[in-house]
Amino acid sequence: MKIDVLSLFPEMFDGPMKQSIVGKAIDNNVLDLKLTNFRDFTTDKQNHVDDYPYGGGAGMLLQAQPVFDALEAVQKESNTKGKVILLDPAGRKFDQKVAEEFANEEHLTFICGHYEGYDERIRELVTDEVSLGDYILTGGELGAMVMIDATVRLLPEVLGNKESAPGDSFSNGLLEYPQYTRPADFRGMKVPDVLTNGNHKLIEEWRQKESLRRTLERRPDLLKDIQLSKQQVEWLADIKSEK
Fold first, then answer.
1. Annotated catalytic residue: which of 16, 39, 69, 89?
2. In the 3-class helix/strand/coil scheme, how is 157-203 assigned residue by residue?
3. Residues 100, 116, 119, 129: which is the catalytic one?
4. Which of 10, 50, 141, 153 is catalytic?
5. Is 153 a catalytic residue?
6. Calpha distance 7→13 (Å, rounded)
7. pLDDT in tens, 71-129
8. Lower CB count within 10 Å: N or C terminus of the chain?
9. CA 167 to CA 204: how far, in whole Å?
10. Which pTM value belongs to this model?
11. Closest by Cα among 87, 75, 161 to 130
């Protein structure tokens, strides 16, 4: 996968994007990550990338010209367009389904904004407008890092265990079940017996039930959006009856 990032602060990506899973993906040539400062594409001597909004108002807006020219240069170099993602509070909310969608693409380009907002014409460039959540950050860089991390870890050969991603919270619409490691008894807090008895069928049933239980307790809204199996419906009824 190739990922381009257009940002005024590309140095913000140098540390986080070279560590852990993303860093390994780059080292193993699974990911080609390129950072472009669109300030390098300004046409005035002062390298301005922002200006006052027409009609007045607070703050400054990113100008269209540097972003247009930077994106055209990036796409010409890579000889592909792919998805162009604008980090914007007005966009659809990023979640696991969006990460899975992005992971199926060969080329992603993230446009990270700053200041008060964008010249509206920049939206003509993009295929997707995405928001990290219902809050405002100083710029789009942190949001892009989160989206890149969530996307890259879904690529084949990135995670060490191919079963890790499908078991993650939200991958099947539910929160992940509780997990434990050694010792089996830590300060009187014991691992559930079912996990130590070696019966894989019972372990899988326990995990599915606890996944349902945790979702019901912490994110019941998620249950409205997924199609439960007949067995899951029965388990959920049992969990509710326990209360």
1. 89
2. CCCCCCCCHHHCCCCCCCCCCCCCCCCCEECCEECCHHHHCCCHHHH
3. 116
4. 153
5. yes
6. 10
7. 999 999 988 889 999 999 999 999 999 999 999 999 999 999 988 899 999 999 999 99
8. C
9. 12
10. 0.85
11. 87
